[in-house]
Amino acid sequence: MLTIRKLKKTFAGRTLFEEADMQINYGERVALVGPNGSGKSTLFSIVLKEEDPDEGEVKRDEWTMVGFLPQESEAVGDETVMEISTGRAGQIEAIEEGLKKLEEEGNVDVPEYFELQGKYDVLNNPQLEAKVKKMLRGLGFSEEEFERPAKELSGGWVMRAHLARLLAMEPDLLMLDEPTNHLDLVSLLWLQDYLKNYSGALLMISHDREFMDEVVESVYDIFEQGLVAYKGNYSSFERQREENFQRQSAAYKNQQKEVKKIQDFANKFRSVSSKASQVQSRLKELERMEMVPKPVRAKRPFRFQIPEPPRGGQVAVALEDIQMAYGDHVVYNGLDLSIERQERVVLVGPNGAGKSTLLKIMAGLIQCQSGERRVGHNSKIGYFAQHRGEMLDPEKTVLEEVMASGHDDLREEMARGILGSFLFRKEDVFKKTEVLSGGEKSRLNLVKFLVDPPNLLLMDEPTTHLDLLSVESLILALENYAGTLVFISHDVHFIRKLADRVLHVNQGKVFSYPGGYDYYLEKTGSAKNERAALTAG
């Protein structure tokens, strides 16, 4: 289906790929992994023929239909969710124009024409709308939202509409760039189950290791400008990569010992005439030796210790008889909830159940109609959301912002190390915060929390915009965090590593499970059906 041979690509003076090979067969599910900036999105652009390689070839079977979901959605006009999801928001027109252009050029027997014709036929299939509605429901849309103007929705919801269209089209090769970024846990698990049984081939970039463990069957690792193939899911890839490194390290060390032994012998007896023939024999042996290259270890998560926050009271925050409504929509009615010191609590439940609202109530950011919110003694609350850009000084650099937020004993090299683990590397730390992207601002605010932590940390989807190494760095830091943590996340690996209590939020009620995520699944029915557990009333 897709074959890449001896690929070379240089970008901004840096070689991303050299002699890189990849092959994807029909029905195969593949993850493309590598550090941020290693060339994952560039490789996608080459496969999609948006960029040309410097050398090498990229071949796709001529009858292959490719569907692509980018990280960012297209601009939204007045189209509805259904119009986006069925291709009536300009996609069909664009395909018609492409077909007309190729016909005028006489190119009706080229792969590009076959692919466009296939997409046109699918989008005009009378059964498409029924399939789209199924996908939209799985991705968290209610029936009432199908005809809602997309411009009234967040970018994340618009992305879900585009994803619904791709899934309904069922392309032969489905390419997904961070498909879980804009999903809640329920819709993520639905997509995970759907992709497990997807009939076409799948090539994805993802920073969600649990998602990859469940879906993919092979991994290509961008390493040392090459593409290294591994069979198995992401966890299997990590084990194999470490085993390979250990084997290569042992071979390299053994050979270096032998080299040193020969060189020492030659140095010792070089001037001894009776040993001359032996010395020459050994040196020729050394010349014939095929040298084992020194192995390079893949990057590891950055480890750092979060400073100990001030000690708070036994109860971090308590809510009593909370009444919260948005107009006629009642979110909570008579809610009682208490969070104890040093608990690690995750909020789960269907989209729109009120998880983010509950987090904001705890943070004191929204006023309830009635009820009481009590914070613990000596409480220092930190609230982390993805739209924290307004909390940054536009005139400060990234490094200055972190140094100003940290403790007096925070050293610059430590601050730069932490920033590096959250993708601010080298000259990035000298950028003014006003020029940062939304994702960069989110990550910078996360670092600020870690260098001067509150004793009650409230986090809404903290792993969005983080790569796999950064997620692991955050987990390692929060595992030793001495304060209280309440968070929302769609990253199951992150949840499993940190949560010791689960609050299931649904239909205005909060059900408490005093154990980890797997304990919660066990108590709510079946660990084999996470989505059913999450949506249960």
Average pLDDT works out at 90
Main sheet overview: 6 strands, mixed
**How many helical elements?**
18
Poorly predicted runs? none
Total E-strand runs: 18
The backbone outline, from C-alpha atoms, is globular
Could you give the distance between the termini? 44 Å
- Strand numbers in spatial order across the main sheet: 5-6-7-3-8-9
Measured as a percent range, the helix fraction is: 25-40%
Query: Which class of secondary structure composition applies to the elements?
Result: alpha/beta
Which range does the strand content fall in? 15-25%
CA-atom Rg in angstroms: 27 Å
Topology:
Blueprint: E1 2-11, E2 14-24, E3 29-33, H1 40-47, E4 55-60, E5 66-69, H2 81-85, H3 91-104, H4 111-123, H5 128-138, H6 155-169, E6 173-177, H7 185-196, E7 201-205, H8 209-215, E8 218-223, E9 226-231, H9 234-269, H10 276-288, E10 315-326, E11 329-340, E12 344-348, H11 355-363, E13 370-375, E14 381-384, H12 398-405, H13 412-421, H14 438-451, E15 456-460, H15 468-479, E16 484-488, H16 492-498, E17 501-506, E18 509-513, H17 517-523, H18 530-535
Parallel strand pairs: 3-7, 3-8, 5-6, 6-7, 12-16, 12-17, 14-15, 15-16
Antiparallel strand pairs: 1-2, 1-4, 8-9, 10-11, 10-13, 17-18
Helix pairs in contact: 3-4, 5-6, 9-10, 12-14
In short:
The chain has about 525 residues and is an alpha/beta fold. It has 18 helices and 18 strands.
Explained architecture:
- By secondary structure, this protein is α/β, with parallel strands linked by helices.
- The chain contains 18 helices and 18 strands.
- It has helices spanning 40-47, 81-85, 91-104, 111-123, 128-138, 155-169, 185-196, 209-215, 234-269, 276-288, 355-363, 398-405, 412-421, 438-451, 468-479, 492-498, 517-523, 530-535; strands at 2-11, 14-24, 29-33, 55-60, 66-69, 173-177, 201-205, 218-223, 226-231, 315-326, 329-340, 344-348, 370-375, 381-384, 456-460, 484-488, 501-506, 509-513.
- The strands form four sheets. A six-stranded mixed β-sheet has the order 5-6-7-3-8-9, with helices on both faces.
- Helix 5 crosses helix 6 and helix 9 (234-269) packs antiparallel against helix 10 (276-288).
- The chain is globular.
- The model has no long low-confidence stretch (mean pLDDT 90).
